[in-house]
Amino acid sequence: MHDLGIKNGTVYLNGGFFNCNIYIKNGVITNITNEDLGCKVEENASGKLVLPGFIDPHVHFSLGVGSNISSDDFYTGSIKGVLGGVTTYIDFLDPIKSVEEIEEAYDKVAKLCLEQGALDVLISDTEEREESIWKARGAFLEAIKGSTTYMDEVDMVVPRNCVNQMVEYLHSLQDKVGIRIKSFGHAGDGNLHAYILKDSLSDAEWEKRMHQVMELVYEKAKELGGQVSGEHGIGYEKKTYLRESLPEVNLQLMNSIKKAFDPKNILNPHKIAQM
Question: For the segment 216-262, what is each residue's pLDDT rounded down to a tens digit?
């Protein structure tokens, strides 16, 4: 006799979803079957998904920054996690205990940047400075737009210690492919945005060189241990490159999740999850 039976649920198993029953004894799953077996307690999961416990790989419980502390400690965070299906989490340590330590960390990073060739370092520690940085970013993008007839964006993400290599590679492609490329990004998380400029190229030549750049950029990103995108969507143009950069099991999982939440394929039909 089993202790618990979870019956009639849609169970995620081996990369797909199946209607079946799960039986548990002494805290261990002993049977996953379509058979109706005896159990002391029965839960009807009809119309519900039955999934393995989720893992949250990045949490900050009891996080202290200066005089502030996060709203959840390890107990309350664990309880909330279980209610949301999270059974395992990885807590990241908080090495900084005061505002002074944060300022010291800023100074160390600034010094590192200058030693590596940065022309200047602006620490965004006031609202005015934050606003000026965003204005500079917007002005930079507008300046690129104003310098060409048309442009398209190629996004990628690489490990942070490979950002320099990727930027240097983007610069080298200008001569190799014969096209102008301007780029910026987020060095802190490895996200880079490369803008490919059409200038006076014909439509046919532009399309040809644009696709050549995409092939080379995503090949290099993969070589460096990166991906075709770190923060933006994939879109039609990247579908092929996404398939090349991810294991087949990842794509199967994406399709399974899509099928579970959108069985009639109403949302974004025939796009990423149906490649």
Answer: 999 999 999 898 887 777 877 788 888 888 888 888 888 888 888 88
Task: Give residues with Cβ within 8 angstroms of 36, minimum separation 6.
Answer: 7, 21
Among residues 196, 233, 202, the alpha carbon closest in space to that of 216 is found at 196
* CA distance from start to end of the chain: 45
Helix (H, G, I), strand (E, B) or coil at 75: helix
Distance from C-alpha of 218 to C-alpha of 227, rounded to nearest angstrom: 7
Q: Domain range spanning residue 83?
A: 54-92
- What the block records as the tokens of 53 is 């416990």
The answer on pLDDT for 184 being more than 60 is yes
Give Cα separations from 126 to 25, 131, 134 (angstroms).
58, 9, 13
Q: Is residue 209 part of a domain?
A: no
User: Is the model's pTM score more than 0.85?
Assistant: no
Total number of domains constituting the chain = 2
Q: How far is CA 118 from the centre of its chain?
A: 28
Which CATH number fits the domain that encloses residue 5?
2.30.40.10
In a domain, 20, yes or no: yes
Q: Within this chain, do residues 68 and 48 fall inside the same structural domain, yes or no?
A: no
Query: How do residues 99-124 score in pLDDT, each as one tens digit?
Result: 787 788 788 888 888 887 888 888 88
